[in-house]
Input
Amino acid sequence: MHLARWSDVGQLEVADVALVPPAHDEVQIEIGSAGICGSDLHFFRGDFPARMGGTPGHEFGGTVSAVGADVKHVKEGDLVGVEPLLRCGMCPFCISGDYHVCADRAVIGEKHNGGMAQFTIVPGLVAFKAPQGIDSELVALAEPLACSVHGFDKVRLRGHETVFILGAGSIGLTAILAARANGAHTIVLARYPHQQAAARSLGADEVIGEDEAGVARMEELRRARVVDVAVETVGGNGDTLMQAQLIVRPKGKVVVLGVFSGGPVNINPLHLAAREVEIIGSMTYARSEGHADYQIALNIIQDYAEESRCLVTHRFSLDEVNTAFATALDKTSKSIKVQLKPNG
Ligand SMILES: [Zn+2]
Ligand SMILES: [Zn+2]
Output
């Protein structure tokens, strides 16, 4: 079988390796689709060191090709998605379902080989049977979507509330679906025209740009005190956390989903205190209070299958993996989600 693996900074190679059977508690998956995430691009650019020889990919879906003897919840032929978090399973956090903060947490596609391969093997407990009516490329969208499902769960988003989403990359755009699924009203700030178009296709109630009209509208929203929850999805080292803090109403909440790789950024503590705004960090997904964010994400994808398709803008074969990464990195490609199809 073929897999992609890191061979250098900014370089993946496709190698031919032996297909091994799953262990007693594992599932072997024939990969249908594997998405490229912003975090994969950090490794590609060399911002973080990639594990040389390791296979990336933590957003994927495929068909079960073999199961270990102890795996009962999925069987050969099932379409599955993978919640790509490994954990110790025994610490207090893991036991309570908050395995995303386990000290031994590891991401499939980083420390453990991921989905950019014809086949991969994962522990059975992270394989989720896909709902009816969706295919592997929609399944692969459940991972980024699960991040906002988790974030909205943390702020107990309610149906009548207004959510302001800063940023319209794949996290910001999938957040529209998570907010809609909660019945919330959504306003999206999107920089690029192709992102604005996608936000509309996904059913955002209002889409604003970063132009003069957008700035004026943000000021109007701030004065009107109508934004209950602001979701920051950009990260980096920009001023978006400050923007989020300013736009929410008094006693509103800010969810931090973006990856702030550039170090400390500004907030305004006096403004925060005076208006009792809460800033809430949110990392990946979990099974807090017994429900899996990843399962909810799969169900949302099923409910919004038609709209979700617009997120997948580019599809490449495994042999084209370097071109696929370059396309995801290139702002002029108008890509939202670039996916690999390792089995054609
Ligand atoms: Zn990701
Ligand atoms: Zn643990």
